């Protein structure tokens, strides 16, 4: 190869990890939750934890903003999207539109906050006879100015629906964008930057066995791509070697042949063409100007983005493990296998 493949590298410390436009935020949560206590929380002492703000990873798990159940009780968003990829465990979603979902075990929820939504994301510990491990990514994808005030919307991508490659030591899941020979791409929400052809957005998760390889396709000019190589020993990219736990921005002008080193590798790929607009962010609101941020706070104080129709800020959807989604219009859905 005549062109440089690796454009920059950066260390991967504790999340959130650095991101490039159009992405705003990326975290990887991996929690070794203990047995449940019958009330969806941990059967373990919470002494020594900063309850309500527990991110210290004591004993290998966190309560986050939860007080009795781990997770993130009711909080608002405006002006961007969240993409939540659950690899292990379950999330209970509830929102100000009256919608609810329980998803996990390979499912993805894509939420367009648009002009404003309040939602909770709780991690119910359903199993009292065994541990309740949880692993997920949450990614924030910006919205262009023209779409920041669209109606809120969520889409479920159930695990069996997600295009993938499995075999030869490769496990690839294609949540957004196309990938050669992996079938029809999923359709992102209609107002997403990912739904615009010029956005060239891709979100892929990739596991490689020791010595396994996969070639990433080129992308459109102007697109940027980052590989989050967060587990593994070493990775070769067109012959250039990176040692483990690194963020790697690669060229998209050419295919990139990945060859894994001597230990299993775990990689998240985020790709997109920059929106290239001003970003004004304060906590859960992402707009283009500070005046719009102030307006977001004013609107939230005035309307609560529709109010909170749930009896608690951290609702959990029962003791049964069945996954489901109930949309604001009453439409219900479940994973394809659950419908069979």
Automatic annotation (TrEMBL):
<comment type="similarity">
    <text>Belongs to the pirin family.</text>
</comment>
<dbReference type="Pfam" id="PF05726">
    <property type="entry name" value="Pirin_C"/>
</dbReference>
<dbReference type="InterPro" id="IPR014710">
    <property type="entry name" value="RmlC-like_jellyroll"/>
</dbReference>
<dbReference type="InterPro" id="IPR011051">
    <property type="entry name" value="RmlC_Cupin_sf"/>
</dbReference>
<dbReference type="InterPro" id="IPR008778">
    <property type="entry name" value="Pirin_C_dom"/>
</dbReference>
<protein>
    <submittedName>
        <fullName>Pirin domain protein</fullName>
    </submittedName>
</protein>
<feature type="binding site">
    <location>
        <position position="119"/>
    </location>
    <ligand>
        <name>Fe cation</name>
    </ligand>
</feature>
<feature type="binding site">
    <location>
        <position position="77"/>
    </location>
    <ligand>
        <name>Fe cation</name>
    </ligand>
</feature>
<dbReference type="GO" id="GO:0046872">
    <property type="term" value="F:metal ion binding"/>
</dbReference>
<dbReference type="InterPro" id="IPR003829">
    <property type="entry name" value="Pirin_N_dom"/>
</dbReference>
<feature type="binding site">
    <location>
        <position position="75"/>
    </location>
    <ligand>
        <name>Fe cation</name>
    </ligand>
</feature>
<feature type="binding site">
    <location>
        <position position="121"/>
    </location>
    <ligand>
        <name>Fe cation</name>
    </ligand>
</feature>
<keyword id="KW-0408">Iron</keyword>
<dbReference type="InterPro" id="IPR012093">
    <property type="entry name" value="Pirin"/>
</dbReference>
<dbReference type="Pfam" id="PF02678">
    <property type="entry name" value="Pirin"/>
</dbReference>
<feature type="domain" description="Pirin N-terminal">
    <location>
        <begin position="65"/>
        <end position="141"/>
    </location>
</feature>
<keyword id="KW-0479">Metal-binding</keyword>
<feature type="domain" description="Pirin C-terminal">
    <location>
        <begin position="204"/>
        <end position="306"/>
    </location>
</feature>
